[in-house]
Write a sequence for this structure.
């Protein structure tokens, strides 16, 4: 089972002050090395045991909890020991040092997981998922990584590879056994199988924008004229006073950002508060406005803020000069205006067309379409108050809807392609499949040559999950076509 002669040790938790730390030891001599420093020894596998760790000279280093694993039933597939020690700077380091003194070598980054892959405990995509899980900064990324660790992506890719190898097998069958009773496999059947595989790859590649959203969050830029309440809205949305707020127009100069995860949203929202847009002679303010304009250009969605109807329309128009992203109109400070004369009646839809009409919507968020008279049709308008919190939840819901509609929400049944390595491999596979289909349709190449594209597509897919038996085409032929009959 063991793929490496050396036994490795590492601190698995971040260094520094903390209640507990985990020291990990793995390799063929893990138990022998543990025996040199752990009292009592032996410890039964998969049972926690409160023990003592002593240095070579007998000095007590700590009283940790030990967990012993016997190969192959461990993370790495090797004999292993985990020590849950007290945290801090001295204790875990001294235990690692004692284990090194007893014959272990300090592990390289990722070496435990590398061994897990080499020992067949997980494939490459799952190993990457371990890394993604540790790096996850959002619930969306956490969910995607866990699904990948559970084998969601690997199963899908293996299924795809099977499909490609299946097409290859159909052709190989034709080449190798042309005289078989079953007769030649129809060209249409081969074309249809290749096209089904290509569709599946395309569906996975199409998750790229959703994956980017899960990883980075949707960039939500809060923009508008100075003093309309952008920073107040930003603070209210993130739930703390992060951006400076004052009644002096031009308070925000640099972009201020923060990430939030609205409940149930399929991706985090990366909110960016910007300097108010206006024509300014002030050099510093002008620099801030340029930052705002750059943020607008990179936005997934823009909240164009205004505190009057005319201001709102002007903000939407101005924002649109700098972005192709969807825009949501946010009518701010709605607590300050008498609701019976100023509110829009709610049309009941954030996207359907509706005419603004005065009505008593009692300060709640009103989402409607089309700030009339501005050429801003199809812009949902949401009324909010940063002071009272009114309208904030509906605003977030609309933001999520608008981003998902434009940039794609993660589909629940298709694994997210979160890594460039996977995307490149899928793109390579798609290109090879495309080349095959073209050649096949045009009868441009002999079968055996066209099939090379399929082989290359299968190899590209294999690269995602790592080592798979590369040459099982003949096995497929015999299995599927009962050649041995
Ligand atoms: N009553 C009320 N006042 C608000 C609300 N939101 C903001 N204000 C006030 O409006 C003024 C401007 O608020 P900011 O949030 O600094 O406005 P801004 O758009 O970020 O301004 P700049 O950074 O200068 O572009 C402040 O005095 C806020 O207290 C609100 O919902 N209700
Ligand atoms: Mg501001």
């Amino acid at each position: 089972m063991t793929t490496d002669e050396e036994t490795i040790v590492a601190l698995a938790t971040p260094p520094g002050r903390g209640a507990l730390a985990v020291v990990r030891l793995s390799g063929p001599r893990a138990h022998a090395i543990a025996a040199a420093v752990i009292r009592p020894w032996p410890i039964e596998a998969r049972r926690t045991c409160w023990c003592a760790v002593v240095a070579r000279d007998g000095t007590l280093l700590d009283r940790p909890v030990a967990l012993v694993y016997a190969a192959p039933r461990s993370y790495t597939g090797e004999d292993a020991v985990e020590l849950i020690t007290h945290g801090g700077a001295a204790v875990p380091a001294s235990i690692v040092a004692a284990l090194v003194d007893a014959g272990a070598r300090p592990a390289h980054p990722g070496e435990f997981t590398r061994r897990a892959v080499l020992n067949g405990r997980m494939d490459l995509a799952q190993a990457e998922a371990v890394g993604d899980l540790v790096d996850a900064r959002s619930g969306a990324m956490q969910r995607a990584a866990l699904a990948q660790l559970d084998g969601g992506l690997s199963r899908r890719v293996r299924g795809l590879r099977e499909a490609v190898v299946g097409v290859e097998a159909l052709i190989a069958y034709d080449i190798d056994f042309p005289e078989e009773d079953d007769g030649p496999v129809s060209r249409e059947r081969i074309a249809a199988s290749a096209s089904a595989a290509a569709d599946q790859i395309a569906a996975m590649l199409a998750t790229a924008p959703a994956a980017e959203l899960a990883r980075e969050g949707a960039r939500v830029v809060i923009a508008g004229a100075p003093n309309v309440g952008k920073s107040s809205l930003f603070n209210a949305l993130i739930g703390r006073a992060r951006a400076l707020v004052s009644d002096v127009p031009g308070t925000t100069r640099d972009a201020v950002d923060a990430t939030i995860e609205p409940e149930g949203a399929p991706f985090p929202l990366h909110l960016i508060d910007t300097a108010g847009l206006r024509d300014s002679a002030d050099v510093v303010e002008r620099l801030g406005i340029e930052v705002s304009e750059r943020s607008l250009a990179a936005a997934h969605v823009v909240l164009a803020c205004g505190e009057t109807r005319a201001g709102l329309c002007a903000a939407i128009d101005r924002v649109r000069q700098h972005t192709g992203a969807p825009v949501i109109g946010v009518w701010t400070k709605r607590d300050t205006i008498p609701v019976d004369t100023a509110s829009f009646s709610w049309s009941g839809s954030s996207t359907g067309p509706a005419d603004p009409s005065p009505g008593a919507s009692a300060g709640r968020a009103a989402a409607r379409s089309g700030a009339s008279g501005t050429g801003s049709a199809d812009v949902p308008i949401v009324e909010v108050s940063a002071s009272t919190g009114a309208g904030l939840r509906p605003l977030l819901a609309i933001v999520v809807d608008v981003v998902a509609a434009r940039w794609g929400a993660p589909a629940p049944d298709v694994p997210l392609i979160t890594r460039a390595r996977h995307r490149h491999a899928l793109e390579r596979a798609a290109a090879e499949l495309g080349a095959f289909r073209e050649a096949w349709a045009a009868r441009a190449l002999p079968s055996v040559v066209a099939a090379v594209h399929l082989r290359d597509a299968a190899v590209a897919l294999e690269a995602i999950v790592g080592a798979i038996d590369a040459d099982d085409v003949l096995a497929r032929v015999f299995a599927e076509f009962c050649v041995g009959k």
The chain has three domains: 8-121, 135-207+416-481, 212-407. The domain at 135-207+416-481 is CATH 1.20.120.430 (Four Helix Bundle (Hemerythrin (Met), subunit A)). The chain is about 45% helix and 15% strand. The two ends are 38 Å apart (CA to CA).
